Amino acid sequence: MASNNIVIGIAGSGGDGVISAGEILVNAASSDGLFVFMLKSFGAQIRGGESSVRVRMSSEPVATQGDKLDILVVLSWKDYLKFQSEMLLEDHVVILSDSEDSFSEENIPIPADKLKNWYKVPFNQLATNAAGTSLAKNIAMLGVISELFNLPKTALEKSVKKKFSSKRDDVIEKNLNALKAGRDYVKKEIEKKDSVLFEYTPGDPRIVMEGNEATAFGALYAGVEFYAGYPITPSTEIMHWLSVYLPRYNGVVIQMEDELASINAVVGASFAGRKAMTATSGPGVSLMSEGIGLAGMAELPIVVINVQRGGPSTGIPTKTEQADLMQAIWGSHGDAPRVVIAPSDVEDCFDCTVLAFYIAEKYQLPVIVLSDAFIGHRKESINPNRFRDLKYGFKKINRRITPTEKELEDYHRFKITKNGISPVTWPGMEKGMYQAAGIEHNEKGFPSSDVSVHSRMTKKRWEKFREIKREFSFERFYGPDDAELGVIAWGSTKGAVKEAVARANANGIKVQAIIPQILYPFLIQPFHDFLRHKKRVIFVEMAYAGAFRRYLRGFVRFGDFGVETVSYRQTGGAPFTVGQIYDKIVEEYEKKDA
Amino acid sequence: MDEVKYSLKDYKSDLKPIWCPGCGDYGVLNALMQAFVKLQIPPHQMALISGIGCSSRLPGYINTYGFNGIHGRAIPLATGVKLSNPDIKVIAVGGDGDGFSIGAGHIPHAARKNIDMTYIVMNNNIYGLTKGQASPTTPVGEQTKTTFYGNMDEPINPVRMMIAYKASFVARVFSGDPKNAIEVITQAIQHRGFSFVEVLSPCPTFRGVEQFKLIREKVRHLPEDYQPTDEVRAFDIANDNDFIRLGVIYRQDRPIYTDIMRKMQQVSEKMGKPEILNLLKQFEP
Ligand SMILES: Cc1ncc(C[n+]2csc(CCOP(=O)(O)OP(=O)(O)O)c2C)c(N)n1
Ligand code: SF4
């Protein structure tokens, strides 16, 4: 069964180097021009504990981590148990495990028919013999699987060298020895009884990024100048990355005492004329909501990244979910417009962040980017050239408009204009002095509790939405327009939906999907276009209460279009698989035919 | 200062204060504007930041850049402004409730980071704007709208607290003693680092008109030879129960946050400011 698309899962304890092995593999595949996708999963332990990775590589573009594993590597059975429900196995799965693992065989939770292709390999011993340390067992393991399944070889060596490049030469040497020992072991000791083989032609090297890195990079690209934040999983990598790079561009990164402080510092920085942002997760956004309202009232541009995690309250910090939609759109008090956009993969994390700054600066309001752990923490390979030719180029990115000399003669900071946008000044500018406030104010900025002032100013603030809706329309459509069955999803479920729709269409099942990027303000027209031929639509979301479906139903009268709606949702933790969504599509498609 | 370019009227805004007649905050407004005149700070080179409360209305009455933010968050808001533009004089103002109750978590951090700003708290021992509830500085036993049977909570001593937090400038003044208030506030604004000034600023409406008199009887200026650099002595002064001491109680010179920030930027500048797209190198496999 030679294939150009392969899914490998590795599970073990923290000390086994599972994640490093996954990263080395991903880098090797990317430098050979393959499309890669890597998902990490780990327990709540700070160090050690169980960890796993799933790496999919293919010479065709991939949008998900793949449903089931072609290859499972178990460095410790005890730790594998924790991931059983996340790591589903193909019937033809090949299993490799450490022959020195003392876990008793009768307790191995895998049905016998899937244990046909099981190799027990002394990873530990191979590493100790070749490198003098069992620490290199993950590398020996990579040697074994690369030989056994024809994974990129020269590239793998290069990747190992790179991984240890900061270490002493003998460390690199030892690891290369371990790699070779793994390969030699296969040649000498293993008689291949399985049929899994990877087949590919190398292409131009690709780069590898994690969603949170792409978000941070996008922010820098958009010209962020100020970042204030407070650590929270799964968003913190954004702050880590900016802490390294933002100061090099004269920007400021400050770790505040909490989220209340972070958001207010961001608002303060924006008041001082800077492009400012913070990143957090749902619990942090809860604390920030008063400050987000302040930015709305003071009409100051800010960007807030919410890398959503699982569950209410502290929930499951390391796992994913899409349940903060309503919080993003409505989570503040009073009528306070903000824009909500949702990235759907790693590249999109970059694009959405750039877009967020563009919108925030141009329209002087808060923009919330709804990322999640699933995209924030995964690695994808990307064509580096895509960054050189972008819709919102660095130079083209707006900074808020400032008043003309004439406008400064009688400056009205909150001047009511046709599109709601008024020129803004900041401290240091000689003539534009004004008062910003969370309290209702007139056009000059002076406090007012006059109801007519309030209604005029409220209208002004919302007027911006009209133009935003005119300027943007970013929906992705997959599948034929005239399909009668539709799928509506948002954010990180895109990958699974996209692949499931492609699979269905290839199998003669006509279905089309729509994935919006801007969630709020809501753009009705694309949905109306989408619904023209539809008889039934499935809403896919990783949120138990189905907020997305409820939200859309507030804008689109599906009934008026004669469209039946079906909700397909699950709680997070494990993201949707292509198979799950495909099966749902088939189920609904058959109902429609009946 | 050779030439007086800015006079009181340059600092006065078009807005009339809505404070009650006799409110101590008028004195603070006046002292602050007098200090600006003394220091000749160009109005557009300042940012006055506040939270919410009667006292937090103050920025609106001064002709400069101002931000009347949300309850308790003046300090982080001011931090964002200062770090974004270190050349601007940043002054945060507010009440005792705003600062020591809802916003209490922020003060130690601005103090320890030594953010170069002045923080003026108008302490009236009560919540004014919400009409008379106990504040964190209300004395034990006092009846307020929320302490019908007498306040049971030990009050905060702001000066002692700020010394403990390592604020690099800690002072106390009385809004009924303008000369001293102007002098000390001027020094606070000149101080490089986080300067804190507690202003005893009575609320005749909810604490009674006699509060002015009671304070006047208890306050004393610090002795002529007082050295504010001695932390132990400063604590003694803060703990004095017989008299309420006015003046600069504690002061320390240490690097300010923006100095440290600049140093860090210099170190990182040495590593180069790469063309943004060159950063893609780090993502190469
Ligand atoms: C989050 C939040 N909680 C409560 C309030 C109501 N509130 C407004 S001012 C205030 C207290 C003000 O007291 P203080 O800070 O001492 O100022 P003063 O009015 O006495 O000058 C309160 C509780 C609010 N605006 N926001
Ligand atoms: S209520 Fe008290 S603090 Fe508020 S304005 Fe009136 S006197 Fe001043």
What can you tell me about this protein's structure?
The complex is a heterodimer of chains A (594) and B (285). Chain A is α/β, with parallel strands linked by helices and 594 residues long. Chain A has 19 helices and 23 strands. In chain A, the strands form 4 sheets. Chain A has an 8-stranded mixed β-sheet. The two termini of chain A are 37 Å apart. The model of chain A has no long low-confidence stretch (mean pLDDT 94). Chain B is α/β, with parallel strands linked by helices. Chain B folds into 2 domains: 8-254, 3-Layer(aba) Sandwich (Rossmann fold); 255-285. Chain B has helices at residues 8-11, 25-39, 74-84, 96-102, 107-113, 158-164, 178-190, 204-207, 210-218, 231-239, 257-270, and strands at 46-50, 65-68, 89-95, 117-123, 126-127, 133-134, 169-174, 194-200, 219-221, 244-251. The longest helix of chain B is centred in the N-terminal third of the chain and has 15 residues, at 25-39. The radius of gyration of chain B is 20 Å and the shape is globular. Iron/sulfur cluster (SF4) is lined by residues 19-20, 23, 25, 54, 124, 128, 203-206 of chain B.
